[in-house]
Design a protein that fits this description.
The protein has seven helices and six strands, in the order βααβααβααβββα. Strand 4 and strand 5 form a beta hairpin. Strands 2-3-1-6 form a four-stranded antiparallel β-sheet. The protein has a two-stranded antiparallel ribbon with strand order 4-5. The longest helix has 12 residues. It is α+β, with helices and mostly antiparallel strands and 138 residues long. It is globular and about 40 Å long. The protein has one domain: 2-Layer Sandwich (Alpha-Beta Plaits). It starts with a strand and ends with a helix. The structure holds adenosine-5'-diphosphate. Adenosine-5'-diphosphate (ADP) binds next to helix 4. It is an enzyme of class 2 (transferase). GO terms for molecular function: ATP binding; metal ion binding; nucleoside diphosphate kinase activity. It comes from Actinobaculum massiliense ACS-171-V-Col2.
Length: 138
């Protein structure tokens, strides 16, 4: 069975006109876009996605960031796609993400005291299936 990954192009990716660039990076590696949808995130579903950080002091900023505008959600497939996409995405903090990664090349953070890192990608095959069914119901 093909492995999947769930991605969200966050509101800053859309505001900055980077949707095409970011999807190209993932497609160029050879991953297949299976689902893609422009939508808005609601705080309830976001909290399920981010249960592991919901009690952090910065969560209220994450919630207002992620619900501040439209996002693009998607599911990609490919051989070891989860590990591969996380590598292309880079470390959480854009100031620490390696050059060449999406967050390292395009992410901007802390200018206004907040982290803006453009893209979410599930961190394990189990979470990918959970997140894909949370969003796409399949
Ligand atoms: P990742 O997105 O790299 O898997 P996490 O799951 O730890 O990282 O965090 C989820 C999201 O929460 C991050 O992508 C980022 O948008 C936000 N976040 C994480 N840590 C912080 C922080 N210290 N300050 C502000 N926002 C953060």
């Amino acid at each position: 069975m093909a492995e999947h990954v769930f991605i969200i192009l966050k509101p800053d990716a859309l505001e900055r006109g980077l949707v095409g660039v970011l999807l190209s990076r993932l497609e160029n590696k050879g991953y297949l876009i299976e689902r893609l949808e422009m939508t808005r995130l609601d705080p309830f579903r976001l909290r399920k996605l981010y249960a592991h950080i919901a009690d952090k002091p910065f969560y209220s900023d994450v919630e207002s960031y992620m619900t501040s505008g439209p996002v693009v959600t998607g599911a990609l497939s490919g051989f070891r796609v989860g590990k591969g996409v996380r590598q292309i995405v880079g470390a959480t903090d854009p100031l620490r993400a390696a050059p060449g990664s999406i967050r390292g090349d395009y992410g901007r953070a802390w200018e206004d005291g907040n982290m803006r890192n453009l893209i979410h990608a599930s961190d394990s095959p189990e979470n990918a299936e959970r997140e894909i069914s949370l969003w796409f119901g399949a």
